[in-house]
Amino acid sequence: MSAPRYRQLADSLIRDIESGRYRVGTLLPPELQICEQYGVSRHTAREAIRRLVDMGLISRRSGIGTRVRTRNARSRFIASLTSISDLFQYTQRTRLKLLAERSLTADAALAALLRCKPGQPWVRFETCRYSIGSATPISHTQIYVLPEHAGIRDRLQGAGVWVYGLIEKCSGERIVELQQEVGAVSTPARIAKLLHSKPHAPALHVLRYYFGARERLLSVSVNLYPENRFRFSTRWRLEWGIDKPGIDKP
């Protein structure tokens, strides 16, 4: 099912603002001109503009018009992740869209990324994750699973999709450990198009490795988050009740 027309228009206007077509400090075209330019009704134009006002991208003043305030929306999707259950809660506030599926065999480069042996067969699902109610992706995610777990494809789309849980249900094997690596990369042009972002713009690169019993690797996800669209929030607690090596007591 496609997004409502006003959301599609809102996303088009957001992309035009981010690209600089409508520069910060300038006025958007009048409502009637937007209707003609984008082929929409006045009701659709009003709803789309209201959405951008709520996001903090534009402001409206009677007798003046609609002015662009910033190129980036003030609301980012923030995930506070301190446990596996937090990761589950994060996914419940998002939806997943399946873009493509491919069976492949790991070459040397892919084996290094996935921490597996060359020649290992995998099934890769290409997806985008969205905040519920938004047509702008939060992330691009490639999900690698063992061929025997490829049945998760039938449940990969929609709201609240939790890949971790799907793998457990499909395999009948409990995931006992998750390892995560976070870095920064330049967004490839093809993925930038899917994310509605600029080619080669900075992005957050997050690798997640899911292990079953006896350190058996069940799945790997490769996540790309555009800049200014997502933020991780973590909390670290120091336990001072335990003697620390190398720290002298007073």
Name the features.
250 residues, alpha+beta, Arc Repressor Mutant, subunit A, Chorismate lyase, 7-stranded antiparallel sheet, 11 strands, 32% strand, disordered C terminus
Description:
The termini are far apart. This protein has a 7-stranded antiparallel beta sheet, sandwiched between helices. A two-stranded antiparallel sheet has the order 1-2. Strands 3-11 form a two-stranded parallel ribbon. It has 2 domains: 64 residues, Winged helix-like DNA-binding domain superfamily/Winged helix DNA-binding domain (Arc Repressor Mutant, subunit A); 157 residues, Chorismate lyase-like (Chorismate lyase), CATH 3.40.1410.10. The protein has 7 helices and 11 strands. The protein has 250 residues and is of the alpha+beta class.
Topology:
Layout: H1 5-19, H2 31-38, H3 42-55, E1 58-61, E2 65-68, E3 77-80, H4 84-92, E4 94-105, H5 108-114, E5 121-131, E6 137-145, E7 158-159, H6 163-171, E8 177-186, H7 189-195, E9 202-211, E10 217-226, E11 230-233
Parallel strand pairs: 3-11
Antiparallel strand pairs: 1-2, 4-5, 4-7, 5-6, 6-10, 8-9, 9-10
Q: Output the CATH class name of the largest domain.
A: Alpha Beta
- The averaged pLDDT comes out at 83
Strand order of the largest sheet: 7-4-5-6-10-9-8
Number of helices: 7
Number of domains: 2
In CATH, the homologous superfamily of the largest domain goes by the name Chorismate lyase-like
Tell me the strand percentage band.
Answer: 25-35%
Structure summarized in a few sentences:
The protein has 250 residues and is α+β, with helices and mostly antiparallel strands. It is 28% helix and 32% strand.
